[in-house]
Amino acid sequence: MLVHILIHILIHILIHILIHVLIHILIYIGIANPHTGMILDVFCGCGGNTISFAKKYQNVVAVDIDVNKLKLLQHNAHVYNVDTNVQCICDNAYVFLEKNINRLMGRVDVILLAPPWGDDYDASFSKDVSTYDVQTSFPCGNGFTLLSLAVKITQYVIYVLPRSVSMHHITQMAHQVCPNLQYAVESIYINSKPKMTLVFFSPKHL
């Protein structure tokens, strides 16, 4: 049990590192601006990524449907003295993105999508086949639709997916939802075992 907890913590640390490396690269090349731009953390939960973003960015918007998690996020942001940089919004992610496309377009530098995967996401994974379907397996809704809403706001999107999503499925999603964007895939391994997948979408000229 302790080993599983430690692995879970390590996975989240690795995710933080990879995501923030991407953010720092975007800042370095002038795509993202921590003073005038905005990071949108969708499905923020208790705010692990949100707080890390807020240490660098002055305007981080955190969206989650669970008001109790948002209260924990606000407490944690206060503890880390970044609460003035964080705006918490309690809303359904799909509804929030759709109704704010026009308002947020051109203002958001990066969107982080980290939706819940459901309890059975690992059951669809084996050594030989990965069958998790982003369209139908998310308990919160269609994962293709989620991406399509995000890329209408910004072309820079980080998508956190389970290890049981195949490259073929990621390619299908990219070609169907945002064929004008390029994407990079980073798989997170621990002890030679895949644990999670990050997909970073960006303009093809980047």
Properties at a glance:
single chain, 206 residues, alpha/beta, 7-stranded mixed β-sheet, 39% helix
Task: State the gist of this model.
This protein is of the alpha/beta class.
SSE map:
Blueprint: H1 2-28, E1 38-42, H2 48-54, E2 60-64, H3 67-79, E3 86-90, H4 93-99, H5 101-104, E4 108-113, H6 143-153, E5 157-162, H7 167-177, E6 181-190, E7 193-203
Parallel strand pairs: 1-2, 1-4, 2-3, 4-5
Antiparallel strand pairs: 5-7, 6-7
Protein model, in words:
39% of the residues lie in helices and 23% in strands. The longest helix is centred in the first third of the chain and has 27 residues, at 2-28. It is α/β, with parallel strands linked by helices. A seven-stranded mixed beta sheet has the order 3-2-1-4-5-7-6, sandwiched between helices. The protein contains seven helices and seven strands; from the N terminus they run H-E-H-E-H-E-H-H-E-H-E-H-E-E. The N and C termini lie far apart (43 Å).
